[in-house]
From TrEMBL:
A family per Pfam: HATPase_c
Taxonomy, superkingdom: Bacteria
Name of the protein this chain belongs to: histidine kinase
Keyword Kinase in annotation: yes
Catalytic activity from the UniProt record: ATP + protein L-histidine = ADP + protein N-phospho-L-histidine
Membrane-spanning parts: 60-86, 93-114, 120-138, 170-187
GO cellular component assignments: membrane
Membrane keyword on record: yes
Domain Signal transduction histidine kinase subgroup 3 dimerisation and phosphoacceptor: 215-278
């Protein structure tokens, strides 16, 4: 559907509008014939034309052509003008009939309201209007209106009648054109509004689909980060318990207790995550069960490092720079990055030590927070390649979410490194 104002075309009339046009046309034809009869009764000497029925035929035809005024607006305009001239020429007295005047007005109005060929409309309207004024002037010249009548005002009878007729026709025709333009432009504006509303609806649907997709990715990322850390810990401890079960039952028992604790923590965090996903507002949250404790953040890194050191390789935590406040989402992303990186160290590396460095950076009037996790191991032969998988992909996605940077891969000196830097608000 074209919305360019220069090329816009109004939709064709609906079946209901065409039916209404037929009703209007037939009604005006009947009214025109009735008006002729009333005028003839008031002035029996007035000329009716051929067999005293010609005036009835022309006036009724003027109404009937309006039955297709919106379907063929230009054709109706031309036919109406010809019929109007015929009435005025063959039965001049009856040209003043109000229904006849209404028919011509509706023809001009409909042409400007519904014509789809605007250049042809302008030429046709110009010819009709010029023809009408030429006819009026010709009538005054031939009939010699006002001859023999005394001048009692500031104008002679001929000048007065000429000015009145021309002024009335100017208002008549250009009024019809103005009303037609208002209708045409109103239809165009309604269509533009409908098109705009449709674009908004499609954009809203697109945004909703994109939001759902982003939410699915976020949920998948959170589930992976919550589960992978604890499951990898459980796997490492289970393998150790199996080896120590016969030789050192006490050590095996300690490993099983660690497994039990990790499983409980995993379930608790899963409940917390599901509760946060389901609680869309405070009212819903008040009626939904489950843990509602805050999501982990930077303040929980020390606990995470301590737990990992007790379950596998030795992990150290270092802080560089003057600490400053960090938003909850950025803190959660930093925590999940460290959690995933340490899970990979335990599950896929032979490392005996790992180091977590948290850096608070304030430079160039901006604040950034950076975390780096390095280890001294190498990938196990049975492990999947660490550059793949959903966990490291989730780290990259978290960094992109905050418009940050990520660097993941082997170190030249040996071992593996995961580094993420997130920009924060401007420093104050």
């Amino acid at each position: 559907m074209a919305t360019n104002r220069e090329t816009w075309l109004r939709d064709r009339p609906t079946p209901r509008e065409r039916r209404n046009d037929v009703v209007v046309g037939v009604s005006l034809a009947a009214l025109s014939a009735l008006a002729i009869e009333l005028l003839h009764s008031a002035n029996p000497t007035a000329e009716l034309g051929w067999n005293d029925i010609e005036a009835y035929l022309w006036s009724a035809a003027l109404g009937l052509v309006l039955c297709v005024r919106r379907t063929f607006p230009l054709s109706v305009l031309v036919l109406s003008a010809l019929l109007f001239f015929a009435v005025g020429h063959r039965a001049p007295y009856f040209g003043i009939s109000l229904p006849v005047q209404i028919c011509q007005f509706l023809a001009m109005y409909s042409a400007w309201a519904w014509s789809r060929n605007r250049p042809a409309l302008r030429w046709t309207s110009a010819l009709v209007v010029i023809g009408m004024f030429v006819w009026v002037v010709w009538q005054f010249a031939v009939e010699d209106y006002g001859a023999g009548m005394p001048t009692v005002g500031i104008f002679s009878p001929l000048i007065a009648l000429a000015v009145y007729q021309i002024g009335a026709n100017v208002v008549y025709f250009f009024g019809a054109i103005a009303f037609g333009l208002v209708s045409w432009r109103g239809a165009r504006q309604r269509e533009e509004l409908q098109a705009y509303a449709e674009r908004l609806r499609l954009e809203q649907e697109s945004n909703a689909r994109r939001a759902v997709a982003e939410e699915r990715v976020r949920i998948a990322r959170e589930l992976h980060d919550v589960v992978a850390h604890h499951v990898s810990s459980i796997g490492v401890q289970a393998a150790g318990a199996r080896r120590l079960l016969d030789r050192a039952p006490e050590s095996a028992s300690d490993a099983l207790r660690t497994i039990e604790g990790s499983s409980r923590t995993a379930v608790s965090e899963m409940h917390q995550l599901v509760g946060l996903l389901r609680a869309y507002d405070a009212d819903v949250a008040a009626h939904v069960g489950g843990d509602r404790s805050p999501q982990p953040g930077i303040d929980d890194l020390e606990r995470l490092v301590s737990e990992t050191s007790g379950e596998g390789p030795t992990v150290e935590l270092g802080v560089v720079g003057e600490p400053f406040d960090i938003s909850g989402t950025a803190g959660l992303s930093i925590y999940r990055t460290v959690q995933e990186a340490l899970s990979n160290v335990r599950a896929h590396s032979t490392a005996t030590t790992a180091r977590v460095v948290l850096r608070y950076l304030s430079e160039d009037s901006t604040r950034r927070v950076e975390v780096e996790v390095t280890d001294d191991g190498s990938p196990r032969k049975t492990a999947v390649v660490r550059e793949g998988g959903w966990g490291l992909q989730g780290i990259k996605e978290r960094a992109q979410l905050h418009r940050g940077e990520s660097e993941i891969g082997p170190r030249p000196s040996g071992g593996f490194r995961v580094r993420v830097r997130l920009p924060l608000e401007e420093a104050r």
